[in-house]
Amino acid sequence: MITQRSLPYLTSSEPYFEKVRELGQAVFLDSGRPKCPWGRFDIIAAAPVESLELDANNPDNAFDQLEALYQRYAIDLDENPDLPFQGGIIGHFAYDLGRCAETLPTCAEDFAKLPDMRVGMYLWAVVVDHHKQTAVLVADSRVSVDQIDALESRLLKESNAKKQPFSLRAPFKANMDEAGYRVKLNKVDEYIHAGDCYQVNFAQRWNSEYQGDSWQAYKQLRSAAPTPYSAFIDSGKDQILSLSPEQFLETLNGQVTTKPIKGTRPRSQDTDTDNQLKQELAESLKDRAENLMIVDLLRNDLSKVCEHNSVKVPKLFNIESYANVHHKVSTVTGKLSDKYTPIALLKHCFPGGSITGAPKIRAMEIIEELEPHRRSIYCGSIGYISLCGRMDTSITIRTLLCEDNHIYCWAGGGIVADSVSSMEYKETFDKVNNLLHCLEATIPK
Hints:
With about 450 residues, the chain is of the alpha+beta class.
């Protein structure tokens, strides 16, 4: 049983988040509206009734503890396609949570304090439907009427929150230059030609120092680079700013969907040039081969937990265009077996194949050997697991971490046998230049 109270519909959900942020452990799953045409639902919540923070080296498997948290609050709810979240788990799953299932080397510097998993059990949320232009406060039956009244009152009042500006102290600095990047890619190329792997997703990291409120940074970024799987998560100790265009795993009425991205071209302000770049991506045999490798990997991952012969590829090599890049996107679907829960699906597929390479485990070993720093939140996932059984998660690319007045950002790309180092290096900048430049504009003159 859930309670719903209608709220005024706003084209941007920022004001609703600002009104609940001070309640603690606030989350904003952001569809990128009004600028992102594909987005539909925004989910905003705070003050979870229970939280879970774990690292992959915990003796108790993090995914098992996640399942236990879910089951402690499980109730009988029907899925509603117009109300995706009816109370449940929201949080992040960092890339290295994959160590729960696989033994990997420990070579890269583990610089971040961010736990590999931090989730909360949220029994109320604001759910905004931008297609139907509605907003509702949704509350579980375990939330008292007095609490619901107080939340509704808070959401309807004018916000008096003071705005603390954000500014970088210095330009972003990468953890390798182009020469260093080329040395690493030559090593990847050796592994590929030796038959160790077919593709490795190799990334670099940028960092800077900042002062002020990271929420103000996120608002600037979501305006400059709107995407349908964005998120802002504020634990009070750190903040995650995600502008991701990529869906990882969704379950709806037992149907599983994943939409891997592989293949990128920059946008151009000149319409003819932009169309040429888009067509070049559509026709590129190299990008098709990269994409198909990951589609096959994800088909294999889904087949572990989906019904026999249910895994299909309804869309292959679609082109999606964002503010700064064109992407090649495929869609893989399946029917989740009755033996498995959405959390089991997440466990068996984590981390996403589009950001590791193929075969997955060997690619992850090579990533750990060659990338100077651990990935932390980058290439992990953010999302929700509703008590009605629905799940939706992103791949945390185009994602920044704010921690101890330091801010980190990453970008990478799939390296295959015919990759050209200079082009791959440029592609990493194509993916995040608009984010880096947006924030570098805040450096005091």
